[in-house]
Structure formats: C-alpha cells, structure tokens
Amino acid sequence: MQKLVSAYDEQWLQLFMEEAEKLNVIFRNEIIGIYHIGSNSVPWLKAKPIIDMMPVVKDINLVDTFNLEMQKIGNAAKGENV
Asked: Which of 19, 20, 59, 66 has the fewest CB atoms within 10 Å, counting from its CB?
C-alpha cells in the first residue's frame, strides 16, 4: 500500500523529537547526533506522514548490539538496508 502525500503537520517535529529522545536513551554515549530528514522535515512542505530519521553513531559496528532495545520501542532490525 502506498502512503499518500499529506499537508504539512506541525506535530511532525514533535514526533521526531519524541523518537529522537527514545534513541538517545537506547544508544546513550554511542550517539553523535540524530537528524530529522526527508520531506516532512521541511516546514510547510507536503510530505508522506512518515518521520525519517538519521542517527549518527560513533561506531557503526556496535549498532546491532542495540537491536533488542530497538525492538522494544517498535523498530525492526534490518541489518544493512540496501
């Protein structure tokens, strides 16, 4: 099923911030930054209602050690997403 483009929703920023906080708790000192990317990160731009995030970590090789914690907040591990 294809997601439809929606009018900008001011809640998208709040949703990003809430999810970013969850990632900060899980990844603790491993996280360098978490960025809101994609079309819904641009104020007033129509976009698909999916919050795209790009976490940046110190050591990419350690990311899989957080899989169980990520599953607990509703994320599925996909390994290398190519």
From this structure: 59
**According to DSSP H, which parts of the chain are helical?**
11-27, 67-72
Look up the pTM and report it.
0.85
* Own/partner long-range contacts of 21-25 (Cβ < 8 Å, ≥24 apart): 22/73, 23/53, 23/55
Q: What contacts 43, CB < 8 A, 6 or more positions away? A: 8
